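Reading a protein record of the kind used here takes only a little practice. To see the layout at work, look at the sequence and tokens printed below.
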Amino acid sequence: MTMEGGRPAILVLGAGGHGKAVLDLLLAHGGWRAAGVVDAAPRAAAVLGVPVLGDESLLPGLVRQGVGAAHPAIGHNAQRLAAAARLAAAGFALPALLHPAAVLGHGVALGEGAVVMARAAIGPEARIGRLVLVNTGAIVEHDCVLEEGAHIAPGAVLTGGVRIGAGAMVGAGAVIRPGVAVGAGAVIGAGAAVLADVPAGVTVAGVPAQILPERMRP
């Protein structure tokens, strides 16, 4: 079950919208064969023609059958990290995934379980940490550092030398000025223009971005 036509099998955990995006990546990639999908609460028989096998109780058996790799296809950062821990505990490797329509500059480092979606562009010597999600059409310029479990949403732009802390979320279409640091767990609202460092755990939005009162945070 591990190889078919020279392609290794990989399991996808998550049958939601992000699971569909990851399966689309695998179908376009050609280097992997999707072994199936598992989900905590399966609601469909298949996603993009790939069968939904059942829930996570199947994980040990799939390892025994020879499926050696898996990906936690969950958009929510904390839930993605927790799912990755369950997959690793079951014995799966967590390879980095790169859509063939993404662009990587020289010297880019991709951590375990990171995923770079279609039309994303990663500049030279950027560091993409473990389980980071760089979503469709995002730009992560030269020398940026994205720490574990961060998510850069579709169309966001990180100019040179930006640092994104662990578990932080950069919303769709946001733009971050060169050299800015975003703290762990912070949330950057969609379309925000971030001109200064963002403390850990806060939510910012607007042009220029300002910290939102707690009652206005998602």
